[in-house]
Amino acid sequence: MTPEKHLVYCRIERTGAVLLLRREAGTFLGGSWELPGGTVEAGEPPEAAAVREVAEETGLAVSVGREVGRFSWMDVTGRDLRVHATVYMAHETESAEVVLNPAEHDAHAWLRPAEAVRLGLAAHFLQSVSTPG
Q: How far is CA 44 from CA 39, 65, 94, 97, 123, in A?
């Protein structure tokens, strides 16, 4: 049986723009853009993981809404690992400035979906950003 890893991401919007983060150079997939999110810990509900990951990566407090998409693929490094990702709509519970975790991300941008697609996003992020909020 192939081992599995579960990831969660959040699509957060402000005035029609979606929050995207750029991975720190020197990290896995450094320089690529993504939605805020990360790994679901053992025994952790996915929605709780999404809220935790957004807080850790951006300093934002959010509540999780509907599911935007569910995706699966084999690990891109060639390991025998199936990755599952769920993307949720998320809503800020209070307005705040984005404060990045510099160990993970070096930039952020609020972009309209038409602008975001020019970043060369991975397929699951591209579909999630392109789907109307």
A: 10, 17, 24, 27, 26
Tell which residue, 123, 20, 9, has the closest CA to residue 76: 123
Question: What's the mean per-residue pLDDT of the chain?
Answer: 92
Report the distance separating Cα 111 and Cα 129, nearest Å.
10
Distance CA 69, CA 76 (A): 20
Q: Report whether pLDDT(4) > 70.
A: yes
CATH at 89: 3.90.79.10
CA proximity to 22, closest of 130, 101, 131, 115 = 101
Residue 86 and residue 50: Cα distance in Å, rounded? 9
Q: Which residue has tokens 């996915």?
A: 46
Give the domain range for residue 16. Answer: 4-130
